[in-house]
């Protein structure tokens, strides 16, 4: 493996410098014939890199892991995790590498990570590789989430490796380069706490505070304040997921970032018809990570973080339990507050309060009872404030919508500081027209796997502006056709 000549990224690798014992130095497996499939020019520019340089052969070698850029220190990070409720003490980056931390022009720090870069000491029997399809899925969905305003890791590039990987069939391999505030997870704290090394646990917490929750450093109880910061960030994140119908699919503790960003897109998808029991993951047989379960699972995961932090919160477990439990319990109130804000905005309520929860829930129940598409149902609502309401036609029994509307419209009108046109415009700014519809995603993945990339780029262009309805793009807003069937997604490992 070669080292690139001259600086490409501005690296400053604090994780490696400060947290020895939580990683293994490693390098990517060589890719015999790398080919750039998609590059995020805007993100590259934000990172201070000229996209034209990344498109060169030398740049592509960096993105696929063939070349270590100056200043990078590639490592496989260690973490544990509860997977579907069962504890695995040693997981880690089995097929991924942290190349290093990039400082952008504003001095902000970002992890630059490779996924699908080959076996590491944490590979647990896998080949460490990835296929083109799942890497393109993460690119599409993570960039769609970013455009929707949801905190997320982002995708910089997907590079085909020039070799096949063995799954149910032979598939072209690929490496995804992605960017995140960090890849420190609840599972990172679980792993560190299990080592029973109090200084390393303290160093990890101090590192995470400095990167993600700096106000906690000056609190009376910094580690309790850090826990509160993570609880608050996750409450808002999950509320945002719910407001766009996003199903993560594999909410294990090793997939929950303390930064409050969405990470590790595997069997993720967006709902079409609204149903709280919606599950897409092929391995989630019991529906543990169904759409409607996501808030409760987030709370469960945060309890595991709280357990790991107990030694830092107070000298004894008995002293730490009460304040840590109080922070954990605050998740429910915080989540309900954020849910009310996000769903209230979708209904045109800038001042949604607890008395509006019933109005929100009754509309969701209507969507469920009448098999109405989640995204289209909410987007159409802004038209229901004017003349000639097309929304009622979405419901098998329009009278049921009329009854709800008779309660909703006066509540919207009670906001005297905005007229109906202003309210409708505000609703259209939070209710997307375009999401990564599953049938469209599957189409571009199947085509992109074998080199037909035009549909992928077209979809990315649409998703980059999800709230702006544009003529000629109607098919991107339509729900899946009836013959699309029961949709299932896969992790891609």
Automatic annotation (TrEMBL):
It catalyses: L-threonyl-[protein] + ATP = 3-O-(5'-adenylyl)-L-threonyl-[protein] + diphosphate; L-tyrosyl-[protein] + ATP = O-(5'-adenylyl)-L-tyrosyl-[protein] + diphosphate; L-seryl-[protein] + ATP = 3-O-(5'-adenylyl)-L-seryl-[protein] + diphosphate; L-tyrosyl-[protein] + UTP = O-(5'-uridylyl)-L-tyrosyl-[protein] + diphosphate. Mg(2+) binds at residues 255, 264. It holds the Pfam family SelO. InterPro entries: SelO. Its EC number is 2.7.7.-, 2.7.7.108. The active site is at 254 (proton acceptor). It comes from the Bacteria. Keywords: ATP-binding, Magnesium, Manganese, Metal-binding, Nucleotide-binding, Nucleotidyltransferase, Transferase. Its cofactor is Mg(2+); Mn(2+). One of its GO terms (molecular function) is AMPylase activity. ATP binds at residues 92, 94-95, 115, 127-128, 178, 185, 264. The keyword Transferase applies. Belongs to the SELO family. Nucleotidyltransferase involved in the post-translational modification of proteins. It can catalyze the addition of adenosine monophosphate (AMP) or uridine monophosphate (UMP) to a protein, resulting in modifications known as AMPylation and UMPylation. HAMAP family: SelO. This is Protein nucleotidyltransferase YdiU. It comes from Paraconexibacter sp. AEG42_29. The gene is selO.
